[in-house]
Amino acid sequence: MAEKKHSRFIVIGLGRFGGALAERLAKNGHKVTGVDIDEAAVQRVEHCLAEALVADGADEEVLEALDLPNADAVFISLGDHANRSIVTTMLALEHGAERVLIKGIDELHAKILRKLGDVEVLFAEEAMARYVADHLV
């Protein structure tokens, strides 16, 4: 039987959403690299990640070292830091990320992100609300 190929994901921002996402992807058997400027955030999830870096995800040198073109997807979850999220998205696209998904803050933030290129903007709270409403008995 052929070995199942697992995807390689990069999660930039390991707060509540990014940390939970990185942890779940890793538990599902994928190779996950997590990046956060906050050492405590990295320490909370490093036990299950293939690689965990305390670094600034908006730093061009950091993004270059992550080998973005060979990742199946790059997730950007920088909380309410719209400017950092926009800069990180722009740099990720410039460094060859094929698929970029960003945790959106609001519709203006999403509109700006979409102007940068082919990206997917996620609104975590809305998605969870739909999920809960659709699965209530």
Q: What does this protein look like?
A:
With 137 residues, this protein is an alpha/beta fold. It has 6 helices and 6 strands; from the N terminus they run E-H-E-H-E-H-E-H-E-H-E-H. The chain has one domain (8-135): 3-Layer(aba) Sandwich (Rossmann fold), CATH 3.40.50.720. Strands 3-2-1-4-5-6 form a 6-stranded parallel beta sheet, with helices on both faces. Strand 1 (8-12), helix 1 (16-27) and strand 2 (31-36) form a beta-alpha-beta unit. The mean pLDDT is 93.
Secondary-structure blueprint of this entry?
Elements: E1 8-12, H1 16-27, E2 31-36, H2 39-45, E3 51-54, H3 60-65, E4 73-76, H4 82-94, E5 100-103, H5 107-116, E6 120-122, H6 124-135
Parallel strand pairs: 1-2, 1-4, 2-3, 4-5, 5-6
Major sheet details: 6 strands, parallel
> Over all CA atoms, what is the radius of gyration?
15 Å
Categorize the overall geometry: globular
Structural class: alpha/beta
| Widest β-sheet, arrangement of strands | 3-2-1-4-5-6
CATH topology: Rossmann fold
**Which regions contain 5 or more consecutive residues with pLDDT less than 50?**
none
- By DSSP (H or I, 4+ residues per run), the number of helices equals 6
Q: Which percent range fits the helix content? A: 40-55%
Task: Give the helices and strands as they follow along the chain.
Answer: EHEHEHEHEHEH
Under the CATH scheme, which architecture would be assigned?
3-Layer(aba) Sandwich
Number of strand segments = 6
What is the CATH superfamily? NAD(P)-binding Rossmann-like Domain
User: How many domains in all?
Assistant: 1
Terminal Cα span: 40 Å
Strand residue content: 15-25%
Average of pLDDT: 93
The first-level CATH class is given as Alpha Beta
